[in-house]
Automatic annotation (TrEMBL):
It comes from Winogradskyella bathintestinalis. It comes from the Bacteria. SUPFAM superfamilies: Radical SAM enzymes. [4Fe-4S] cluster binds at C319, C323, C326. Residues 616-625 have a biased composition (Basic and acidic residues). PROSITE patterns: MTTASE_RADICAL, RADICAL_SAM. The keyword Iron applies. This is YgiQ family radical SAM protein.
Length: 658
């Protein structure tokens, strides 16, 4: 029988909890913009547990109050080694604001979804306070906010080009990407007695060197200098050209060290570590997490982000898609670090034995659901690769895209006696399941995986992300042609019929992405309507640091070609593009009609708002609930029940006229 959890099973968050453990001092104190959830998918918990595994005394201060006397920043005193700071599992600006820069009314990483517990630019705010209160204690920043803002970057919310976050935060060191490997080396050096301010050659870290500091030597690294922050402020094209270097070096297995001048200082970004081995990632997930929020939140309400992943299993890190609008590969890397089946099944057993587990796993996935155990067939080819994506514009012939290990993993999970059903909640790369696109894969393996997912791991709806229908826009997005979505839908429909299922296919789309014009959105609306979709899973493009699309949005140049790219910038442009998603809403129809007439696209107008359908709609009787159906869908695309209703109504009209 599992022992009942005690307060001391969590990392301490107060002096009282420190004393319960009998500690007289702390080695490391972590500050986080998130509430403290002791779970392997929450970064602060992972780092805290890992440092604890090294024998260190670690405490965490979650969501410290920055609006009072700043007591939270001094209550635990001064740590022996350093303060660690993260803005949380999401960039705080994404947590706090939507794509229209409006304040969100919920924060998923706060109890009850309450807002106001995380400041804007949290990493910078926390770090500055700590440097003011404890000027002689090193501050180490990490997490996604620090990682994506490690170099000159465009900040959408202030509409400014900002320098490295090391400059604004006054922190002593930055860890980018997933932090286990660099922190292990940092702790090793500190425990050997090396002063913190002398440590500047650890992989996957960045520091800001003063004018008088000597450049550290490392015979194993080549160096490259990018345009200074001041040059970027004056020349958008130079800023864009920087990004190609940053992205390629971030994804290389033998990367160069990057230098950038920032005023009279020099930013030094050391090369990343190689991808974590299976043993390393297993060790991280096997740490003694309680898998629960800290008891201090018991009376404040559930934490939405935790409730979403409470019964889910993360099976890998990284994503080789390299989508132009996505930050996953920029933070986790493009090479996949997969857990062993043994480690995954061990976690499944832990979850299955939780007291409130009802037999349903909400997700077995990762950044993308179907990249588990996928890697290069010949490692030496990957070692030299500089491509930001392994599957765009085509799937690399050296990439092993076998879905067999994943299918077998699902089947092994489902054999657990307490698991009634395991769902796949992570996004599936549908393009990799299309033999016409994934030409090197075994078509039977792809069909087996698709059938496995559709028959056993979906509850009514399968969500995929084609993102757009325009091939030029998709090319810039680093996504495949929309024709492969058509191919996937054919296979989906075939399995649906074969197995007697009634599953829905739900596609995700993005509006106002760089290179997207109003006409592209009109085409998207018409083509998806023609396929029988009434879109609901849609969003507007939000510029976030460290993506190709954001660089284009700010500079107007593609970083790889330095050619001009048109991008919707104004609110009017963005709103107009977004309206095409909702062609079926009455308030949009007149505008769509006028817009398409101006564009001379009567063909699209005939698809979106057919004259006969609109005429019938205006004349339909009010309050006739039996005759209601999706009247924006042309008659030949309606289901049989709607056709019967329509025919009966026509007969009634004829009788009245007689």
């Amino acid at each position: 029988m599992k022992k009942e959890l005690q307060l001391s099973d969590w990392l301490p968050t107060t002096n009282k909890e420190v004393k319960i453990r009998g500690w007289e001092y702390l080695d490391v104190i972590l500050f986080s913009g998130d509430a403290y959830v002791d779970h392997p998918t929450f970064g602060p918990a992972v780092i805290g547990r890992m440092l604890e595994s090294f024998g260190l005394r670690v405490a965490i201060v979650p969501q410290p109050n920055v609006n009072d006397n700043l007591q939270d920043f001094i209550k635990l005193g001064k740590p022996r080694l350093f303060f660690g700071v993260t803005g949380g599992c999401m960039d705080p600006m994404i947590s706090n604001y939507n794509a229209n820069k409006k304040k969100r009314d919920k924060d998923a990483y706060t109890p009850n979804g309450d807002i106001g517990f995380r400041p804007d630019y949290a990493t910078t705010v926390y770090s500055n306070i700590l440097k003011e209160k404890w000027p002689d204690t090193p501050v180490l920043i990490g997490g996604i906010e620090a990682s994506l803002r490690r170099v000159t970057h465009y900040d959408y919310w202030s509409d400014k080009l900002m320098p490295t976050i090391l400059e604004s935060s006054k922190a002593d060191m930055l860890v980018y990407g997933m932090g286990e490997q660099p922190l292990r080396e940092l702790i090793r050096l500190l425990e050997k007695g090396v002063p913190f301010n002398s440590i500047n050659t650890v992989n996957q870290t960045a520091v800001l060197l003063n004018k008088e500091d000597k450049i550290p030597k490392n015979s194993n690294w080549e160096d490259i200098e990018i345009s200074s922050h001041e040059t970027c402020l004056k020349d958008k094209k130079q800023y864009a050209s920087n990004f190609k270097i940053i992205e390629q070096e971030s994804n290389k297995l033998a990367a160069r060290r990057i230098f950038q001048k920032v005023g009279d200082k020099t930013l030094m970004i050391n090369p990343p570590y190689p991808t974590m081995t299976e043993a390393e990632i297993d060790a991280s997930f096997d740490l003694p997490y309680t898998r629960l929020p800290h008891p201090k939140y018991d009376k404040r309400g559930p934490i939405p982000a935790f409730e979403m992943i409470k019964f889910s299993i993360n099976i890998h890190r990284g994503c080789f898609g390299g989508c132009s609008f996505c930050t996953i590969s920029a933070h986790q890397g493009k090479f996949i670090a997969s857990r062993s089946q043994e480690s995954i099944l061990k976690e499944v057993d832990t979850v299955a034995n939780m007291p409130d587990f009802k037999g349903y796993l909400s997700d077995i996935g990762g950044p993308s659901a179907n990249m588990y155990q996928m890697k290069g067939k010949v490692q030496s080819i990957c070692d030299k690769c500089v491509a930001p994506s392994c599957i765009s514009p085509v799937i690399c012939s050296n990439l092993d895209t076998s879905h067999k290990p994943l299918t077998e993993l699902y089947q092994a999970v489902d054999k657990h006696p307490k698991v009634k059903k395991s769902f796949i909640g992570s996004g599936i790369r549908h393009d990799m399941l299309v033999p016409e696109f994934n030409k090197n894969a075994d078509p039977k393996e792809l069909d087996d995986y698709t059938e496995e997912v559709m028959t056993k791991h979906v509850s009514g709806r399968l969500k995929v992300a084609p993102e757009h229908t325009s091939d030029p826009v998709l090319k810039l997005m680093r996504k495949p042609s929309f024709k492969y979505f058509h191919k996937f839908k054919e296979r989906f429909d075939k399995i649906n019929i074969k197995k007697g299922l009634k599953l829905q296919l739900i596609p995700y789309f993005i509006s106002n992405h760089p290179a997207c014009e109003v006409e592209d959105m009109a085409n998207l609306a018409a083509e998806t309507k023609d396929m029988g979709f009434q879109l609901e899973q849609v969003q507007g493009f939000t510029p976030t640091p460290m993506t190709v699309a954001t660089v284009i949005y700010y500079s107007g140049y593609h970083p790889y070609t330095l050619k001009k790219v048109n991008t919707p910038i104004t609110k009017k442009e963005k709103d107009e593009q977004h309206r095409f998603f909702f062609w079926y809403k009455d308030e949009n129809k007149a505008w769509i009609k006028n817009t398409l007439n101006k564009l001379g696209r009567q063909d699209l107008l005939d698809v979106l708002l057919p004259a006969k359908t609109e005429k019938w709609r205006k004349n339909k009787p009010k309050g006739d609930a039996k005759n209601t159906f999706n009247d924006a869908v042309p008659f030949n695309q309606r289901n049989s029940e709607d056709k019967v209703r329509f025919s009966k109504r026509k007969k009634r009209k004829k009788k009245k006229r007689r």
